């Protein structure tokens, strides 16, 4: 052990430092090449120009370069047809094989643009050149885009079409379909599809864990749980947590505790998710103090509360309007080295909003910012609506300027309320400044807000300023 410790403290050989620098410079070079190539492709006027460009130049293509260019098309919402032509040009290059990443990225770009016919063309091309790049993940990428705009039936039809492309069309693929339906449609749709297709596949633990979450009815969850065991699938911590959660949400705390006991009998230790569900359930039946005791009980079992567990306990006290106890838990969190998140603070902001308490909202906002926790859109809406209700322009503008400088919250949603406030109290210069700040960030104010500012500017005979704002709105709309 002493020799190993000595080795670990030896200075790194000079050639190792050179190797790290060469990797770093190579990565930087690839990123720069991807930027240049993406900009060149994007500025070409047609796919024919793009073909001529590649035919007239010998550009060395690597997987890293192709992946980088396609990634830029994805995140910059570039022209999908230009991306496809580039993808196909690379695929025609002798000795070049697309990575799974580039295939999935290309299909995502096409799916976002609803070019589903082209998706099947690309899959057919990849099946001929390298079928191994088509994986269950590829299927999830495609099905997610289909499910977002098409019906459940069309999504299932697309799933069946993948049988021609994926070598092992098995339970992993079935699970990918169910997960997609849970995310893009509803749990109800996913469960209906499960019952209609389960005879064609062999459901496994992952199948049931996908379907067990989000139950509203304890009876339905119990029946599903029994079906799982009848099929010889042994529940794990995820399965049991789903059952505990549905009991807690249904205020059946005794049944939740029975599940916890059964978990221990099967040598499955309840985790922080289990206890968090119980804390929430105890709050629903009006026992916030007992829920706080659960935080201590967790530690006795070697399971330590996280931010979500504390948030659940704080929520209980906020619902009970016992803010002193809620603040005590907030202090305890920080003393344990846990950083409250925007959800934590929003529990308080909600109470302050409904009680019309701007003074405590102001104090908590400053505590939040001092702690380095940026508000989210919900935080901003509670605060800005409260400012509007009390016509507090100074605090509203302070929040807005923090949003502009630090980049948090939805500019569009918050600006609607802010412009209402500024126009109501006749602060036209401030409204114009906030409008221009928003535009500089690339965000378009709503037409309703613009019309309010326009009316005030017309009344104030500020035609030049109005013309400037109108021009910026026109550019953003186009």
From TrEMBL:
Gene3D superfamilies: Tetratricopeptide repeat domain. Pfam families: PPR, PPR_2. The keyword Repeat applies. The keyword Transcription does not apply. PPR repeats lie at residues 236-270, 271-305, 306-340, 341-375, 411-445. Coiled coil: none annotated. InterPro entries: PPR_rpt, TPR-like_helical_dom_sf. Keywords: Repeat. NCBIfam families: PPR. Belongs to the PPR family. P subfamily. This is Pentatricopeptide repeat-containing protein At1g02420. It comes from Rhodamnia argentea. The lineage of its organism: Eukaryota, Viridiplantae, Streptophyta, Embryophyta, Tracheophyta. The gene is LOC115746655.
């Amino acid at each position: 052990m002493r020799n190993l410790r000595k080795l670990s403290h030896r200075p790194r050989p000079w050639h190792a430092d050179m190797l790290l620098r060469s990797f770093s410079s190579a990565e930087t070079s690839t990123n720069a090449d991807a930027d240049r190539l993406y900009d060149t492709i994007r500025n070409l006027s047609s796919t024919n120009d793009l073909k001529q460009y590649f035919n007239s130049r010998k550009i060395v293509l690597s997987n890293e370069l192709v992946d980088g260019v396609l990634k830029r098309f994805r995140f910059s919402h570039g022209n999908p047809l230009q991306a496809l032509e580039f993808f196909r040009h690379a695929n025609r290059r002798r000795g070049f094989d697309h990575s799974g990443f580039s295939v999935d990225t290309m299909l995502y770009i096409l799916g976002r643009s609803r070019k589903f016919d082209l998706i099947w063309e690309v899959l057919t091309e990849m099946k001929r050149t390298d079928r191994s790049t088509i994986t269950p993940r590829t299927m999830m990428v495609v099905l997610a885009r289909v499910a977002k705009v098409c019906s459940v039936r069309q999504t299932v039809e697309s799933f069946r079409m993948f049988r021609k492309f994926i070598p092992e069309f098995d339970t992993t693929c079935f699970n990918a379909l169910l997960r997609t339906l849970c995310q893009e449609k509803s749990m109800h749709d996913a469960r209906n599809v499960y019952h209609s297709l389960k005879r064609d596949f062999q459901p496994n633990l992952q199948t049931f864990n996908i379907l067990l979450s989000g139950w509203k009815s304890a009876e339905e969850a119990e029946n599903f749980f029994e079906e799982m065991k009848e099929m010889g699938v042994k529940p794990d911590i995820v399965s049991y947590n789903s059952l505990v959660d549905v009991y807690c949400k249904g205020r059946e705390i005794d049944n939740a505790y029975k599940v916890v006991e059964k978990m221990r009998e099967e040598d499955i230790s309840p985790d922080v998710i289990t206890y968090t569900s119980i804390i929430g359930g105890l709050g629903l039946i009006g026992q916030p103090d007992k829920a706080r005791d659960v935080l201590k009980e967790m530690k006795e079992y070697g399971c330590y509360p996280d931010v979500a567990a504390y948030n659940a306990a704080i929520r209980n006290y906020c619902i009970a309007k016992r803010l002193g106890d809620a603040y005590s838990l907030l202090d305890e969190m920080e003393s344990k080295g846990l950083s409250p998140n925007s959800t934590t603070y929003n529990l308080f902001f909600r109470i302050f909003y409904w009680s019309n308490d701007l003074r405590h909202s102001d104090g908590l906002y400053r505590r939040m910012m001092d702690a380095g926790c940026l508000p989210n859109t919900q935080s901003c809406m509670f605060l800005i609506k409260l400012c509007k209700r009390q016509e507090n322009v100074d605090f509203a503008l302070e929040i807005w300027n923090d949003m502009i400088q630090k980049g948090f919250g939805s500019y569009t949603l918050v600006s609607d309320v802010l412009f209402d406030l500024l126009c109501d109290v006749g602060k036209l210069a401030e409204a114009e400044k906030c409008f221009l700040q928003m535009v500089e960030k690339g965000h378009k104010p709503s037409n309703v807000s613009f019309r309010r500012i326009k009316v005030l500017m017309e009344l104030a005979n500020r035609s030049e300023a109005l013309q400037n704002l109108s021009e910026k709105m026109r550019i953003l709309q186009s």
